[in-house]
Amino acid sequence: MGESKNITWHASEVTKDERLQRNQHKSAVIWFTGLSGSGKSTISVELEKALFNHQIHTYRLDGDNVRHGLNRNLGFSPEDRKENIRRIGEVSKLMVDAGLITVTAFISPYKSDREAVRQLLDTDDFIEVYTQCSLSECENRDPKGLYKKVRNGEIAEFTGVNAPYEAPTQPEIVLDTEILSVEASVSKIMDYLQQHQYIDSI
């Protein structure tokens, strides 16, 4: 299906800057990337809660949740993974324009796809957070039992095992989740947001 040529972008009478002024904080995408089991979802849940508790307008987009609805027609081929991230990037862009700090938790294995999302946004509106964790530790945790299924031949094209994962080379934040607790990881992100004036000091 081709793109429609009979569409026009309708500008809002409310600007992003006006929303940020009312919210009293900047908007941005906090983009978690890392292997399955590296801690993305767990940390993102606690980060959203911490932001909300400090009166920050925020919303979390989780990889599994999005595949229940918006991206339910996508599989895990390289092409579908690319489209999955493209759609999430577009949704994130709308949320940033709405004035939210948007927390996303997606494996997003390809550097080019993550960079494409960064390019959709204004400078400093994309904060890449790498949940760094060895494959062996992720497999040891295996919270969803996925690695076991991969080793049993029940899942093909699984990131880190039989499909590639391209780790970030210059992320804004690195969380070594083999060392840092969930609480320490959230604290590190909150410190970054304060130091770079996305939110006021807490």
Structural commentary:
- 42% of the residues lie in helices and 13% in strands.
- It has 202 residues and is α/β, with parallel strands linked by helices.
- The protein has a five-stranded parallel beta sheet, with helices on both faces.
- The longest helix is centred in the middle third of the chain and has 20 residues.
- It starts with 15 loop residues before the first helix and ends in a 7-residue tail after the last helix.
The structure class reads: alpha/beta
Net shape: globular
Instruction: State mean pLDDT (0 to 100 scale).
Output: 90
* Rg estimate, integer Å: 17 Å
H/E element sequence: HEHEHHEHEHHEH
**Assembly type:** single chain
Task: Give structural attributes.
202 residues, alpha/beta, five-stranded parallel β-sheet, 8 helices, globular
Strands, helices and their partners?
Layout: H1 16-23, E1 28-33, H2 40-53, E2 58-62, H3 63-68, H4 78-97, E3 101-105, H5 111-120, E4 126-132, H6 135-141, H7 146-151, E5 173-176, H8 182-195
Parallel strand pairs: 1-3, 1-4, 2-3, 4-5
Helix pairs in contact: 2-8, 4-5
Briefly summarize what is shown.
The protein is of the alpha/beta class and 202 residues long.
